[in-house]
Structures are given as structure tokens and as C-alpha cells.
Amino acid sequence: MSAFSLPATFRVKQRASKLFVMPRIRALDAAQPFDYEARIMEAHEKSSKLKIGIVGFGNYGQFLAKALIRQGHTVLAHSRSDYSDIAVKIGVSFFRDPHDLCEEHPEVILLCTSIISTESVLRSLPTQRLKRNTLFVDVLSVKEFPRNLFLQILPQEFDVLCTHPMFGPESGKDGWKGLPFVYEKVRIGSDEYKEDRCQKFLDIFAKEGCRMVEMSCSEHDRHAAESQFITHTVGRMLGKLELQSTPINTKGYETLLNLVENTSGDSFDLYYGLFMYNVNSTGQIERLDAAFDSLKRQLYGHLHDILRKQLFGNGKGSENLQRLAPPAVSRNGYGQEATACEVKQ
Q1: pLDDT one-digit tens code per residue, 10-62
Q2: Cut 0.85: pTM above it
Q3: Alpha carbon 328 to chain centroid distance?
Q4: pLDDT band (50, 70, 90) for residue 339
Q5: β partners of residue 138
Q6: How far apart are CA 147 and CA 137, in angstroms?
Q7: What are the pLDDT digits (tens) for 165-182?
Q8: What are the beta bridge partners of residue 52?
Q9: What is d(CA 45, CA 103) in angstroms, rounded to the nearest whole number?
Q10: Which intervals hold domain Prephenate/arogenate dehydrogenase (predicted)?
């Protein structure tokens, strides 16, 4: 029986049923754009995340990894020491073998090694297992040295970004807002993917509130020798004095004690690296020596003027000289200092 042969009342009910269903279909269609936008936003969020391999998972590598994980990036790590337990707690995949790390094809290799071990670590990496367009980034406290290493050792296809977050686990424990982050795009490919990837990495620090400073590696090292190296040198010099807190500390003295504490917390290898691998540091050592000598001459010269006034200003110079002179030493006939018995005789 066709629809047209059905009773009129049934056809009316059927049409009424269709009319009743149609609003539900339209409501479902109205929800689809929202779901689509949500999926688009989710896909965009995922595309803004990076897979980052940290080489050198010591104290500083762990410090950076926590921020990377917090922002949703995938973090892998490799180190000569076994930090697998710490990595699990942070949410990082740890690899004892660098080959295994490289075979995961991270988009970014982040070097967090010590300055003096950077070359040996870089040369030992099986870069042939990485994608040929991988981005290499360092966070060393000197910049010309790693820049030259990257350009010398890495194939032309690899991108290079030299950075220096000028803070650490102690100075950055309460957040990175306003702290300087220095970088130079040493070799970044011109295609859209490479430029976008480099910007995504820099955005990690921008999102944490860092003060982003684009600067050449050579300019960074000149400034760092005048600031960071001097700070470490003065802090370590004061540390040699074994200064102690007193019941009458001034604000200035408290500052010195804090300086000693902050610099002594860093390894000597870091300090040595600041000296050895920054060509400007030797000049700063010489300037410190010259400044201290000049200050001593100024002090003793002023003291000499005061003594002369005391000695000769009241006309009793000879008496003052005699009073200030060391006691005379009696000598026996042999030119030797006389004993108490010989003097009495």
C-alpha cells in the first residue's frame, strides 16, 4: 500500500511526526560547528607543542624540564648518570643510551651540559639517527664557544639556536617573570616549518614572563664578562675569607653574604668555564688586579699624608718619630742580637 493510499488521518499524523523530528535534527546540526571548533582548537594546541630531547639531565636540565612539562611539551632526556627515577617523577622519558633518544626523533635537542664537557658530548651524539632538520639549542653561560662548535660539528641541515637563560634553580625558583633570556638565531632555515619551530621554542620562555633579549653571541660574551664573571669572581673571593654573619649585620654586608651563598652553590667547573671559554674574562681578571692595586695605593697614600701631618704638623716631629719607631735592638760584638744577660752586662 502506497503512502497516498493511506487514510488521511494517518498521513496527517505522519507529517506531524516529521515536523516534530525536524527541530531535533536542526539542533544537532547547530552543535556540529561547536564540536568542529573544539576539535580545531585541540589540534592547534597539539601542533604548538614540541618534542624536546634534553642532553645533560643534571640539576639545570631538570629545572628546565619541569617548565617544559608544565606547558604540555613532550620531554625526553639522556645523561651519563642515571636519573630515571627523577625523570619518572617529573614526567620525562629517560634514556640511558643516546642512540635510543635520537631514534625517538625529537624536534629539538637541548644541550644542558657543563661548558667544559660540551664538545665531547656533542661529538658523541649519534646525529645520524636524528631527522636531518633537527633544531639544536644550548643554554650555556658562554655563547661564542658553543656557536662555533655547532657550526663546526653539525651538518648544514641542522638548525642552530644559541640561548642563555640568565637564571637558575635558585634565582628562578619563584618564577621567571622579568628575568632575561638572551638568544641568537645562528642558523634557522627559511622554510615555514623551521621558523615556526624556532618561535615555538622561544615562546616557552616568553610565556613564563622572561624578558626576551635578541643579541649576538659575541656581544653577549662581552657583557657577561663584565657582569656574570665579575659577580662569580667577587663572590668566590669573599668565600675564601669565610665571612660569618654577625649580630650587627648591615644591609650591605647581608648582600655580600647572599652573594657568597649564590656563587658558592655553583660548581667550580661552571666558574672555570666562564673563565676558560670566554675570551673577555682574562681582561676582567687583569682589570680587577689593577683596580685593587689602585685602591691600595690610594689608601696608603692617604695614610702617608695623615702620618706626615701628625709627625711634623706640631713641631714635635722627632718625638713622634721616636714614639712610632720600633724599639732598638741591642747587638753584641758579633753583630748578633744580644741576650737579656748580655745587655745587662
Answers
A1: 454 555 444 445 455 455 455 555 566 666 555 555 578 999 999 999 999 99
A2: no
A3: 62
A4: very low
A5: 111, 162
A6: 10
A7: 999 998 899 999 999 999
A8: 75, 108
A9: 25
A10: 50-329
C-alpha cell at 93: 622519558
As given in the structure block, the three cell numbers for residue 164 are: 642563555
* Contacts (Cβ under 8 Å, ≥6 apart) of 146: 111, 118, 138, 140, 162
Cell numbers that stand for 234 in this block: 667577587
Amino acid present at 31: A
Cell of 82: 642515571
Q: List the beta bridge partners of residue 108.
A: 52, 135
Looking up cell 645562528 gives 186
Residue span(s) of the chain under CATH 3.40.50.720 come to 47-215
Kindly report, residue by residue over 168-219, the tens digit of the pLDDT: 998 899 999 999 999 999 999 999 999 999 999 999 999 999 999 999 999 9
Alpha helices for the chain (secondary structure H): 8-47, 59-70, 84-90, 98-103, 118-124, 144-153, 192-207, 217-224, 230-240, 251-264, 268-276, 281-312, 317-324, 340-344
Cβ count within 10 A of residue 100 = 15
Look up residue 167 and give its amino acid: F
